[in-house]
Amino acid sequence: MGTNVSNLLYLITIVTFILALRYLSNPAHARRGNQIGAVGMLLAIVVTWVKTGGTSWWALAVAMLIGGGFGAFAARRVKMTAIPQMVALFNGVGGGAATLIALAELHRLLPPPGKPTLDILIAIALSGLIGAISFTGSLIAFAKLQELIKGRPITYPGQKIVNLAVLAACVGLGAALAAGVQDQWLLWAVVAGGALFGVMFVLPIGGADMPVVISLLNAFTGLAVAVGGFELENNVLIVSGMLVGASGTLLTLKMGAAMNRSIANVLFGAFGQVSEGAAAIAAGSDGGTVRSASAEDVAVMLAYAHKVVFVPGYGLAVAQAQHDVRQLADLLEAKGVEVTYAIHPVAGRMPGHMNVLLAEANVPYTQLKEMDDANPEFSRTDVAVVVGANDVVNPDARNNPGSPIYGMPILNVDDAQAVVVLKRSMNPGFAGIENPLFYNPKTVMLFGDAKESITKLIQDVKTL
Amino acid sequence: MSHNMLLVFEVTILVLAIFLGFEVISKVPTLLHTPLMSGTNAIHGIVVVGAMLVLGLGHKGPFMWIVGFLAVVLGSANVVGGFVVTDRMLEMFKKREPPKPKDE
């Protein structure tokens, strides 16, 4: 296949990716968009297969079977709750591939020295560096979400300076490579430095911010792939990679905006690290006691309410209680109770996480209220039922300037007449922050696994 | 095309792709943030094309072969895993019948 023909076919792939992104921005066509993208990808792979002209075809086949098989297996088998870390993992391997391509390309071009041009060398250094950051950064994000390592920020004095120094060293080495010190070991050093930086840059970021970090690393991988396109003089890599780089950057900003936090604050704020001042305020304010209630009590509260609002959080996802919540809501509606769901944009571990789960349980869209619509309604709500949510209903975000989440918009469940919190224990949430809502006199706690608690509530409401 | 002409051309399409990337997702509802992130993640799986070229066209000894092989493994995992995970997420957004009236 000639270069012109293959480039034209690659252009079709590019068009499908653009359509995929457009469709993915609309709930009605999103799935179609993903399928269009997959078809375009298949086309690009077939074209490339033919282009390589059958050399090493069996190696290609084996490598693709191993990688594709692992991807399909992991993606199919994973529970819905673990999807965020899967995205991190698949993003990381993409970055790793970009780095390997840079290493291979430099090896192909060297020696003799002087053969690669400046732009190629810059591209090799950049994609090697960015790909390596994305690779290890994503693996750390994966490990944090999978709870292989602790989710809380890991910090030490002078951390930012050390990180900056590592990054500066990488850039310096990369510049030396481009400037004419054409030694493959230099690129290995750049890659090793990038890998180290990826680890050190994600470690101090709290688990609750991982979605934003994954989105940023996703944009990084896109950029690494685009730069890789310059090495291989391949348009489909340049355009597709940059499409992801740009849209991923915009998406990262949007996610940050949904939490009312700047990206700089997410990346360098060591979010979730409780400052001493905040701890003192929390200690001073928790003079109140925690009231725990039985399922029977809560069932009565719910059955005789006019309006009940469910506030789902990560606990709902963990317990897979979405179907039970739907069933309880149906029972309450049959008794004439008005039921809605208040969805915080970042409830769960990723924006939209709760919408996905509740949609799975066939909860009608019309009952899902986004934060701005939900908040004014709490004052005329009898019972707000918090199912496994914590930080997104923490009044400290409004009231306590010392709190790490101060300024984040929250769901004002404490405006409701009564609040029921379903929670496994009094442990602080994922971000590790105290929540004064639990000490509010309006609040009762129903301890236990969300699914079991809801099941008990269903039985008790039925007997009323 | 000379190398410099090619470079200018490549930079041109790179810059156009930046604007297109911003434009094409400018209006995305919060509930689609996660699927969109996952979808773009699948799209940068195009890196597998680069990896295939390295493995398929590389003729410089075992180093390129091994590195290319690994790159194809990683790239294919990115492609297949990315699209499948996104599809699983979006499966949840199927159109459903309108909510039943309350007085049933």
Key phrases:
heterodimer, A: 464 residues, alpha/beta, Rossmann fold, 3 domains, six-stranded parallel β-sheet, elongated, B: 104 residues, mainly alpha, 4 helices, 72% helix, flat, disordered C terminus
- Helical fraction of chain B: over 70%
Structural class of chain B: mainly alpha
Radius of gyration of chain A: 25 Å
Strand content of chain A: 5-15%
Order of helices and strands of chain B: HHHH
Query: Radius of gyration of chain B, rounded?
Result: 21 Å
Distance separating the two termini of chain B: 72 Å
Low-confidence stretches of chain A: 272-287
* Helical amount of chain A: 55-70%
SS-based class of chain A: alpha/beta
User: Quick one: biggest sheet of chain A?
Assistant: 6 strands, parallel
Mean pLDDT metric of chain B: 84
| End-to-end C-alpha gap of chain A | 74 Å
Q: What oligomerization state is this entry in?
A: heterodimer
Which secondary structure elements does this structure contain, and how are they paired or packed?
The complex is a heterodimer of chains A (464) and B (104).
Chain A: H1 3-24, H2 30-51, H3 57-77, H4 83-109, H5 118-145, H6 159-179, H7 184-202, H8 210-232, H9 235-258, H10 263-268, H11 276-285, H12 295-303, E1 307-312, H13 314-319, H14 322-334, E2 338-343, H15 353-360, E3 368-370, H16 371-374, E4 383-387, H17 396-399, E5 418-423, E6 443-447, H18 450-463
Parallel strand pairs in A: 1-2, 1-4, 2-3, 4-5, 5-6
Chain B: H1 3-24, H2 33-43, H3 47-57, H4 61-91
Helix pairs in contact in B: 2-4, 3-4
Structure, described:
- The complex is a heterodimer of chains A (464) and B (104).
- With 464 residues, chain A is an alpha/beta fold.
- Chain A has 3 domains: 77 residues; 184 residues, no CATH class; 186 residues, Rossmann fold (3-Layer(aba) Sandwich), CATH 3.40.50.
- Chain A is built from 18 helices and 6 strands.
- Chain A has a 6-stranded parallel sheet.
- In chain A, strand 2, helix 15 and strand 3 form a beta-alpha-beta unit.
- In chain A, helix 4 runs antiparallel to helix 7.
- Chain A is elongated.
- Chain A starts with a helix and ends with a helix.
- By secondary structure, chain B is mainly α.
- Chain B has a domain of 56 residues.
- Chain B is built from 4 helices and no strands.
- The termini of chain B are far apart.
- The chains are: A alpha/beta (464), B mainly alpha (104).
